[in-house]
Amino acid sequence: MFETDMDTAPLPRGEYAPLLSQLDGLLDGECDLGANAANLAALAFHALPDVNWFGFYWLRGGTLVVGAFQGRPACTRIALGQGVCGTAAARRETVIVEDVHAFPGHIACDPASRSEIVVPLIRGGRLLGVLDVDSPRPARFDVRDQAGLEAMAARLLAASDEGSALI
Ligand code: SME
């Protein structure tokens, strides 16, 4: 049986170093992007405090399509430029939303969500998708989360080929 020695207790707010080293362990020896994204989502969802959705949307035929995630079922497709995910993808930059109700066009998947951060996934100049994280707490995410999540995304993309995520 597969076992990990991952400590799944929530980390202090803004603390990403233990998560990054656990992620390195999960990525070691595996290059399938879909598999690695699934394990990253599970790892981070349980480790980050006050998070109710953590997952990926992959760009397929010009539309973002939901991939591996933890949390309640989510909307399947998001157009570029639509919602927080589509905005981050179109701008190709991380978007932090302190109050999702004040963000024009926010797509409410889980009504409990109050704040959100979306990190675009770009490799070699090509947009592959986005990493989306939601919280039931207003203003949950700040620059520490941006740095930590961008570092996780960079490690994921560096360790993985496109495998099952983008077929
Ligand atoms: N709130 C997102 C949609 C995805 S869910 O949060 C999982 C958005 O506005 O793009």
What do you see in this structure?
By secondary structure, the chain is α+β, with helices and mostly antiparallel strands. The chain has a single domain, classed as Beta-Lactamase (2-Layer Sandwich), CATH 3.30.450.40. The chain has helices at 17-27, 33-47, 83-91, 143-159, and strands at 53-60, 63-71, 77-79, 95-97, 115-123, 126-135. The protein has a six-stranded antiparallel sheet with strand order 3-2-1-6-5-4, with helices on both faces. Strand 5 and strand 6 form a beta hairpin. Helix 1 (17-27) runs antiparallel to helix 2 (33-47), helix 1 (17-27) packs parallel to helix 4 (143-159) and helix 2 packs antiparallel against helix 4. The chain is globular and about 40 Å long. The two termini are 29 Å apart.
Describe the secondary-structure layout.
Elements: H1 17-27, H2 33-47, E1 53-60, E2 63-71, E3 77-79, H3 83-91, E4 95-97, E5 115-123, E6 126-135, H4 143-159
Antiparallel strand pairs: 1-2, 1-6, 2-3, 4-5, 5-6
The structure holds methionine sulfoxide.
Q: pLDDT average, as an integer?
A: 92
Ends: how far apart?
Answer: 29 Å
Query: Which CATH first-tier class would you pick?
Result: Alpha Beta
Please identify the structural class as seen in this structure. alpha+beta
Extended strand count: 6
Bound molecules: methionine sulfoxide
Kindly report the CATH topology.
Answer: Beta-Lactamase
Query: CATH-wise, what's the superfamily?
Result: GAF domain
Number of helices: 4
In one word, what is the shape? globular
Domain count: the total is 1
Major sheet attributes: 6 strands, antiparallel
Strand adjacency order, main sheet? 3-2-1-6-5-4
Q: DSSP strand (E) fraction?
A: 25-35%
